From TrEMBL, chain A:
This is GntR family transcriptional regulator. It comes from Streptomyces himalayensis subsp. himalayensis. One of its GO terms (molecular function) is DNA binding. Pfam families: GntR (PF00392). The keyword tRNA-binding does not apply. CDD domains: WHTH_GntR. Keywords: DNA-binding, Transcription, Transcription regulation. PANTHER family: GNTR-FAMILY TRANSCRIPTIONAL REGULATOR, HTH-TYPE TRANSCRIPTIONAL REPRESSOR YTRA. Residues 125-147 are annotated as: Disordered. InterPro entries: Tscrpt_reg_HTH_GntR, WH-like_DNA-bd_sf, WH_DNA-bd_sf. Residues 12-80 form the HTH gntR-type domain. PROSITE patterns: HTH_GNTR.
UniProtKB/TrEMBL annotation, chain B:
The keyword Transmembrane helix applies. GO terms for cellular component: membrane. One of its GO terms (molecular function) is ABC-type transporter activity. The keyword Calcium does not apply. The chain crosses the membrane at residues 29-47, 85-107, 128-154, 174-197, 204-223, 301-324. This is ABC transporter permease. Keywords: Membrane, Transmembrane, Transmembrane helix. Coiled coil: none annotated.
TrEMBL record, chain C:
GO terms for molecular function: ATP binding; ATP hydrolysis activity. Keywords: ATP-binding, Nucleotide-binding, Transport. The keyword Magnesium does not apply. Residues 6-234 form the ABC transporter domain. SMART domains: AAA (SM00382). CDD domains: ABC_DR_subfamily_A (cd03230). This is ABC transporter ATP-binding protein. PANTHER family: ABC TRANSPORTER ATP-BINDING PROTEIN ALBC-RELATED (PTHR42939). It comes from Streptomyces himalayensis subsp. himalayensis. InterPro entries: AAA+_ATPase (IPR003593), ABC_transporter-like_ATP-bd (IPR003439), ABC_transporter-like_CS (IPR017871), ABC_Transporter_VariousFunc (IPR051782), P-loop_NTPase (IPR027417). It comes from the Bacteria.
């Protein structure tokens, strides 16, 4: 079961934080098809956010085909996001690139800004894709503003 | 789970709804009232038993009597002194009741803000006030009745065949109905003052003074206001107090007596004595034609009791009505 | 049933009688709160938030105008509302258990004992402890247990979380919102700081100097404003829009506006946060009020409320 942590200072819309954290859990294999998401009541009780926000996030995940709501039972994962799962080649390539960037003297913010600008270039032609592929916490801010 | 069990444990028996709330909130006051009754009963029993167990050995001693009972001439004297004190103390019950209703029961809720808790439950503010009035009225009656009984028990040894005490302040009220009426009036006054003043201590002071002033004021004028019975007779000779008195009944209460002149003017009882130093001899220039006596026969006791009780209950109803009106204006 | 939880029409309240001038705590307040909203009532201290809530709770009679709660006069809906005043009034001589018993006795047929008990035991409160011995936060917990145990349709909370430590605040707010979501309860919470309420609420009333300055669903309010940054002079470019506040930033200008159409090119626009909007309005007391359609009084129903009150 995933547990959501809402960062109230991040500036990212609360429902987007839930969407992103769910996707992160899917990518990392913490959630697999058939797993149940916490009920809206459970999320509200642990995070003290508005119930409608949770429902909005779940609707968004449903719209993207990642989860499905089964009446009276709850919300269940339909498919995983395997592309960036831990240990995948893409992730190790990125890790290698990041360590090179660090070795060449870039700090965390520089790397994040660089990554964000490349992301902007590569995915600019796909409207609405912003929330889709964002994973790491540092780039949430730019993504959130765009959404 | 023990915490939950404690939460579910009920106390207070069959009381329900606002009655449970009101009784629980004012439980210390109710216990105090009960303790008062028990203490009074204990003292009364002690004094009656003492008076019976230690009959008067001597009285009319010159100087200090050699054998005393707790510093009094005898147990009987102590009993009688205590009974007199008790009659006066009973008159202060309305003060106590008015102060308690006005302060702890009503004004404290308004002062501390708990009325906002009480008035936003399912029961309406009118129900809140009605419950408080009902509990206070029942409690006041339950306090006054036994105390009245205790007083009658205390003075029983002193009421011989002739009852002269019935007109006395304190004794008259302590027969029951009148004192209960004043106590109920105090409840209503307390509610009205509590809602008006909205601060505990000033409300207690004002309600106490007003509640006490009612029996005090009425007690002063009671026998003057109620119509007297008058007997008259020809001449000036037969006069009360001279041993040849007209019999007005030994338990009657004489209000006024004197002479009537030819012009119909009433002269005081000592009009002749002032001139002649003799009650029986009247100067001719006074033109006295007859005498009169104004008095209350013992039968007036019940009339006055009935009238006074009715008036005080009517005042209590009016004060309670005013309290509900006031509540409607302060609550929505 | 009605889909409106609270409706105020030209509501005004003056304390201290007509002789005292300028004693208006509320003036000309009109708004509608849709049922099942979680509403934040925010504004500076003394703005009239408490007075507004007390009217909805049926504890104050309006000097002018009307307030309707759940479709009826507040005095007719006592059973269906719960109210927790700012100072959390409770009877100090009662124990915690007796306070919950009071809730049962005064709300027969509605009382949810297990919910009230859960809220109390979650805070590790001794049921036998007297209220007078509790800390401010513990009293708040008992007051909320009393309010929630009633299973109200409308829950009015005046500064509910002020006395609580962050952990208890988070936990109680979670319970509150979960219960509200399950029961479809409308919740109104006042606060002089937005803080945690921003994430808990979906509806907002900003009260200032006795008036409603902003009212509506938070999403709608955010969508109605834009944060613009640019280098031009203020007057020309932003003239068609309602400018709430503008500030010089370096060589340029940052302004919060309510756009009345497309913003002129050359200006960078961004969606403001709720906090941006609130702060801008608080700094600009003369900014015009905004009620979104969902927060506006419907003329028909206000006539009905007038009839009920009359």
């Amino acid at each position: 079961m995933v547990e959501y942590r809402i960062d109230r200072r991040s500036g990212v819309a609360t429902y987007l934080q839930i969407v992103q954290q769910t996707k992160q859990a899917l990518r990392l294999g913490l959630l697999e098809p058939g797993d149940q998401l916490p009920t809206a009541r459970e999320v509200v009780e642990t995070t003290a956010i508005n119930p409608n926000t949770v429902l909005k996030a779940y609707r968004e995940l449903e719209r993207e085909g990642l989860v499905e709501a089964r009446r009276g039972l709850g919300t269940f994962v339909r498919r995983s996001l395997g592309a960036a799962a831990a240990g995948s080649p893409l992730r190790s390539e990125l890790a290698a690139w990041a360590s090179r960037a660090r070795a060449s003297g870039l700090d965390r913010d520089d790397v994040a800004a660089l990554f964000a600008s490349v992301l902007e270039e590569q995915f600019a032609e796909r409207p609405g894709a912003g929330a889709d592929e964002s994973g790491a916490g540092q780039i949430n801010e730019t993504e959130g503003d765009k959404a | 789970m023990s915490a939950s069990a404690t939460l579910r444990r009920t106390s207070g028996g069959r009381l329900r709804g606002p009655y449970w709330t009101t009784v629980r909130l004012h439980r210390p006051i109710l216990w105090t009232g009960l303790a008062l009754v028990i203490a009074a009963a204990a003292v009364a029993v002690f004094l009656r038993v003492s008076a019976a167990a230690f009959p008067e050995k001597q009285w009319n001693c010159i100087g200090a009597c050699p054998d005393t009972f707790l510093g009094f001439a005898s147990a009987s004297v102590l009993l009688e002194t205590f009974a007199d004190f008790f009659a006066v103390a009973l008159l202060f019950l309305p003060l106590l009741i008015g102060a308690v209703v006005a302060g702890p029961m009503i004004a404290r809720e308004l002062e501390s803000g708990t009325y906002r808790l009480a008035w936003t439950q399912s029961a309406s503010p009118a129900r809140w006030l009605a419950t408080k009035l009902a509990v206070a009225a029942i409690a006041a009656t339950a306090l006054v009745l036994p105390l009245v009984g205790i007083f009658q028990f205390l003075r029983a040894p002193f009421t011989g065949p002739v009852n002269r005490g019935w007109v006395q302040r304190g004794v008259f009220e302590a027969y029951g109905p009148v004192l209960i009426a004043y106590s109920l009036l105090a409840v209503a006054i307390g509610a009205l003052v509590g809602l008006l003043v909205r601060r505990t201590l000033p409300a207690m002071a004002i309600a106490g003074v007003v509640s006490l002033s009612m029996p005090m004021a009425v007690g002063t004028v009671r026998w003057d206001v109620f119509p007297v019975r008058t007997v008259t007779g020809e001449g000036s000779g037969l006069f009360v107090g001279a041993g040849r008195a007209v019999d007005i009944g030994r338990d009657s209460f004489l209000m006024q007596s004197g002479y009537v002149t030819a012009s119909g003017e009433r002269l005081p009882y000592n009009a002749c004595w002032r001139r002649t130093r003799d009650m029986e001899t009247c100067p001719a220039d006074l033109n006295i034609t007859s005498w009169y006596i104004d008095f209350h026969p013992h039968s007036h006791f019940w009339w006055v009791t009935f009238a006074e009780t009715a008036i005080m209950l009517a005042l209590a109803a009016a004060a309670a009505w005013a309290a509900f009106r006031l509540l409607r204006r302060s609550a929505v | 049933m009605t889909d409106t939880a609270i409706e105020a029409a030209a509501l005004g309240k003056r304390f201290g009688g007509p002789s005292r001038s300028g004693g208006w705590a509320l003036r000309d307040c009109s708004f509608r709160l849709p049922a099942a909203s979680i509403c934040a009532v925010v504004g500076p201290n003394g703005a009239g938030k408490s007075t507004l809530l007390a009217h909805a709770a049926g504890l104050l009679e309006p000097t002018e105008g009307t307030v309707t709660v759940l479709g009826a006069h507040p005095s007719a809906t006592r059973e269906r509302i719960a109210y927790v005043a700012q100072d959390k009034p409770l009877y100090p001589q009662l124990t915690v258990a007796e306070t919950l018993r009071l809730g049962l006795e005064l709300n027969p047929g509605r009382w949810d004992a297990s919910l009230a008990e859960r809220i109390v035991t979650d805070g590790d409160l001794d049921p036998r402890a007297r209220i007078r011995a509790l800390s401010g936060g513990q009293r708040t917990r008992v007051a909320l247990a009393l309010a929630l145990g009633k299973r109200p349709e409308l829950l009015l909370l005046d500064e509910p979380m002020a006395d609580l430590d962050p952990l208890a605040r988070h936990q109680l707010m979670g319970t509150l919102l979960a219960e509200a979501a399950e029961q479809g309860t409308t919740v109104v919470m006042s606060s002089h700081i937005l803080g945690e309420l921003a994430h808990a609420c979906d509806f907002l009333l900003l009260v200032g100097e006795g008036r409603i300055r902003l009212g509506g669903a938070i999403d709608d309010l955010v969508a109605a404003h834009r944060l613009v940054t640019g280098r031009g002079p203020l007057t020309d470019a932003l003239a068609p829009h309602t400018v709430i506040e503008s500030r010089a930033t370096g060589r340029g200008l940052t302004a919060l506006i309510r756009p009345a159409g497309p913003v002129a090119p050359g200006w960078e626009t961004a969606e403001p946060s709720l906090e941006d909007i609130l702060l801008a309005h608080l700094r600009s007391p003369d900014a015009p009020a905004l009620l979104t359609p969902s927060a506006s009084v419907r003329s028909g129903s206000s006539d009905m409320s007038a009839a009920v009150t009359g």
